[in-house]
Amino acid sequence: MERTLPVSTRTDGERRLLDSFAAIPPSERVRLTKSTSNLFRERTRTTTPGLDTSGLTGVRVVDVAAQTADVDGMCTYEDLVAATLPHGLTPLVVPQLRTITLGGAVTGLGIESSSFRSGLPHESVVEMDILTGTGEIVTARPDNEHAGLFHGFPNSYGSLGYATRLRIELELVKKFVAMRHVRFHDLASLCVAIDAIVAAGTHDAEPVDYIDGVVFTRDEAYLTLGQQVDEPPVEGPSRPSDYTGQQIFYRSIQHDDPKPKRDLLTTHDYLWRWDTDWFWCSRAFGAQNPRIRRLWPSRWRRSSVYWKLVALDQRRGISDRLEARKGNPPRERVVQDVELPLEHTAEFLDWFLDEVPIEPIWLCPLRLRGDTTWDLYPLRPRHTYVNVGFWSTVPGGQPGATNRAIERRVAELDGHKSLYSDSYYSREDFDALYGGDGYAALKDSYDPRGRFPHLYDKAVRHA
Asked: 319 or 266: whose pLDDT is higher?
């Protein structure tokens, strides 16, 4: 029997959400209305009003003693960290970009440099309230009558419902993150090092709390190893660096010294180190040109602004028209994150560097936090994977050719691809990778009238 939240316990934001759901004609699909996005999939345009989520953007409670937070589904990690960090707490995994929302990171799978020890954001969710396709809000926990929805919600991308509230675990953190940028001259050695660091939680006898990496070329790659500290270490800078101004974080990683390059950031700046330049993608807008950078207001050097510029370009077709003037077809967008088993990561990177003209490449090791598996994104427990992220365009040709080749290669190497961007799978292949019959059963239970688009329709058919 489905249990809904009593009306008396609903917030004003939830009541507005339910009213907006009820106002959408039964024949129309239900969508969110939101001012920011981190999706790179095209979506079919519609004039139907979306769900009103304007009252679901805050932090409800930070329980310092219990190290948990109750958070609205549309609350950004930027706002959540601002509420928890003064207490010396953060979420176990804080995705890289400030405007990623809690609900978005759970239903769309977030990741960051703590994922080798803390898994993915949904693994630190204690419970969540979810608006389902029946127009009701249910509370899903791993051990209640909605346990199936709890375990099927990650990677469902709003096709099973939207989280209105999440209770998540928090962890204690220190004031600074001391970093070591370790250079590797071949990818196999880098992967061997990942394996050892994940197993031991240390490197050269120093603790490792965070790990990610950047591949610039086949013989220039780095792992950045972070350690939480309350005081600057003896080795390394005595004052924290600042990459929110003229300096650019990913360029600071590079060095020729055989010894690791050391750096220091406040925990706040470490969490958002990638946001200022959208990793390295700000270079597409000239924001890394020193002359332009000096004139570019710092408040506009952030991922949400760059994303809006990309969206504007897509709406107006500016880049495509510029390519046409050169006599070229439109460039193909290749904006993807894929998960490869560690033992196949070097093989995939070698293939990618031969076949796809994109650099740098981001690496982020991860392991599931426990033995629980998640229906719509089946990773093996107790197994190390590496998230490989690459975000750019390549010369145009057959539409989707490079993305299709990547999908094939990832599947051959027993990997998975995140669904926030363009996908080209057949329905049969998609079902085999992303939940299949289990997803269909959840869809029948929680969205029997198809008010939300099917996951395949959202991910592949641009619904």
From this structure: 266
Asked whether 190 and 142 are in contact (CB, 8 A), the reply is no
- Averaged confidence pLDDT in the chain: 93
Q: Is residue 385 within 8 Å of 239, Cβ to Cβ?
A: no
**The one-letter amino acid at 299:** R
Contact assessment for residue 129 and residue 5, using Cβ atoms and an 8 Å cutoff: yes
Mean pLDDT of 151-159: 96
Cβ-count burial 274-285 (b if 16+ within 10 Å, e if not): bbbbbbbbbebb
Q: What is the CA radius of gyration of the chain?
A: 22
The burial of 48, by beta-carbon neighbours within 10 Å (0-12 exposed, 13-18 middle, 19 or more buried), is given as exposed
Closest CA to 341 of 420, 406, 416, 407: 416
**Coil, strand or helix at 167:** strand
Extract the tokens encoding 414: 């027993």
Given a cut of 90, whether residue 46 has pLDDT beyond it is no
Q: Rounded mean pLDDT of 439-461?
A: 95
pTM, to two decimals: 0.93
pLDDT at 193 over 90: yes
Q: Where in the chain is the domain with CATH 3.30.465.10?
A: 7-173+437-459
Query: What CATH topology corresponds to 7-173+437-459?
Result: 3.30.465
DSSP 299: G
